[in-house]
């Protein structure tokens, strides 16, 4: 995508397979490094052959994700606002949106890092796992939350990059972040024998170095452009709009993580082996999800750009093409997991009990790609269009459906019922957003 797009070219554009793939392919590769990191973390700890350590890592990662996904608006909200400014041809507002997000990230990150011990205690209370699992979880949370300021700034930078449709740059930033993290994970966690603590310190270091690189890139770019005034960056109405948007995305994100928290907690009630097996399989679910998120990101940028340019045809093209590509890739992802999943489980953990349990429930994880693809794509469209209230409301509806399914299916069918409830959650999310989209399009243009 031409970085120097004029206002006229920004407003006059067509969405084609090529424009979708230009964003989706590099970002698919970038997002795949994130669950790959999760698999490496699990594999490193799994080499110790202790299910309690695996369970502690899974529980600690869950608490971390609950906290940080609450602030995921710093990525997704920034993407939508920058994409719309890009569609209007307003470069000053693109920069201002980034700096507003960075300021929020610094303040929130410092607070989160300071509250790490409290989050560790709260996580132990919520999970109610056995003492050795709780101890490993506490170590992971207390160290990893030290990366909070760096992680949130990275969210803001990535949101700016994706809002402009620069998938290649987004790929480079994510590859550096997760590449450093993976290398240090092996070094600290396995070679030096630090275990869970080594995995956490690897994340802290990777986030810090990636933040330095990202800031260097955007500052170098901004030196060549007219800069927004300090008054514009600190404009209170703009902050109120961002915070209103972010409030809805925060509620949506928290509801999403609450569903995963309940899933993990229920798995813990079935025993440490089941908890560890579900942790392995959830990594595969995340692989499938991130495999599709590249096209959801393309939907964010292209739909947001179309909204900013008030262009109805490109908007419809973006929705249609990203859905076609998404369903095709979802089918491929499910097939791969069905055929190769057992071998992947064997690579991740040396525990025979965990392997046997994970193999038994593998089909449930494999089909999450197909049941979740519509939800992922609709999220991208609604984030780009900044229709955050609808996204929030449909997520709350989906969470209620998941809770009802969890209470009825898990007691009746055990861990299979737990996975079935997750599928209900994904399907309700996608279908409810699709129904709202049809109403929204009639009034948006």
UniProtKB/TrEMBL annotation:
User: Which residues are listed as membrane-spanning?
Assistant: 20-40, 52-74, 97-121, 141-163, 175-194, 200-222, 249-267, 273-292, 323-349, 361-382, 394-413, 419-439
Is Transmembrane helix one of the keywords UniProt gives this record? yes
The record's annotation in InterPro entries points to: DinF-like, MATE_fam
Q: How does it sit in the membrane?
A: Multi-pass membrane protein
In which broad location class does this protein mainly occur, judging by the first location in its UniProt entry? membrane
Write down the superkingdom of origin. Bacteria
Instruction: Enumerate the subcellular locations listed in this protein's record, separating them with semicolons.
Output: Membrane
Q: Which UniProt keywords apply?
A: Membrane, Transmembrane, Transmembrane helix
Which Pfam families does the annotation name?
MatE
| Cross-referenced NCBIfam families | matE
Q: Which family does it belong to?
A: Belongs to the multi antimicrobial extrusion (MATE) (TC 2.A.66.1) family.
Q: What is this protein called?
A: MATE family efflux transporter
Q: Which organism is it from?
A: Mesorhizobium dulcispinae
């Amino acid at each position: 995508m031409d970085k120097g797009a004029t206002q006229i070219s920004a407003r006059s554009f067509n969405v084609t397979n090529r424009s979708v793939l230009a964003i989706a392919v590099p970002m698919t590769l970038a997002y795949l490094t994130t669950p790959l990191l999760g698999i490496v973390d699990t594999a490193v700890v799994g080499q110790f052959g202790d299910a309690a350590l695996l369970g502690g890592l899974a529980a600690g990662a869950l608490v971390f994700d609950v906290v940080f996904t609450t602030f995921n608006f710093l990525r997704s909200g920034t993407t939508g606002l920058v994409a719309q400014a890009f569609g209007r041809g307003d470069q000053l507002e693109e920069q201002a949106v980034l700096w507003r997000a960075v300021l929020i990230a610094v303040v929130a990150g410092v607070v989160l890092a300071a509250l790490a011990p409290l989050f560790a205690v709260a996580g132990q209370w919520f999970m109610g796992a056995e003492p050795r699992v709780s101890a490993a979880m506490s170590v992971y949370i207390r160290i990893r939350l030290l990366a909070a300021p760096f992680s949130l700034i990275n969210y803001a930078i990535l949101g700016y990059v994706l809002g402009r449709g620069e998938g290649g740059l987004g790929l480079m930033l994510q590859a550096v972040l997760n590449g450093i993290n993976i290398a240090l994970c092996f070094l600290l966690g396995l070679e030096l024998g630090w275990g869970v603590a080594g995995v956490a310190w690897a994340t802290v270091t990777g986030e810090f170095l990636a933040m330095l690189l990202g800031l260097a890139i955007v500052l170098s770019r901004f030196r060549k452009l007219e800069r927004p005034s300090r008054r514009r960056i600190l404009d209170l109405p703009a902050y109120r709009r961002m915070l209103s948007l972010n409030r809805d995305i925060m509620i949506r994100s928290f509801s999403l993580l609450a569903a995963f928290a309940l899933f993990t907690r229920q798995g813990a009630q079935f025993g440490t082996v089941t908890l560890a097996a579900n942790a392995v399989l959830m990594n595969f679910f995340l692989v499938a999800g991130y495999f599709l998120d590249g096209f959801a990101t393309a939907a964010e940028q292209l739909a947001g750009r179309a909204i900013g340019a008030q262009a109805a045809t490109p908007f419809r093209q973006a929705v249609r093409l990203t859905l076609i590509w998404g369903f095709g890739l979802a089918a491929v992802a499910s097939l791969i997991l069905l055929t190769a999943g057992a071998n992947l489980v064997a690579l991740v953990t040396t525990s025979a009990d965990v392997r046997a349990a994970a193999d038994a429930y593998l089909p449930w994880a494999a089909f999450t790609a197909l049941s979740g693809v519509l939800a992922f794509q609709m999220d991208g469209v609604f984030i780009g269009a900044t229709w955050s209230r609808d996204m929030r409301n449909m997520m709350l509806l989906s969470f209620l459906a998941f809770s009802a399914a969890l209470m009825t299916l898990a007691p009746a069918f055990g861990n299979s019922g737990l996975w079935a409830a997750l599928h209900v959650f994904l399907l309700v999310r996608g279908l409810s957003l699709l129904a709202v989209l049809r109403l929204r399009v009639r009034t948006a243009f």
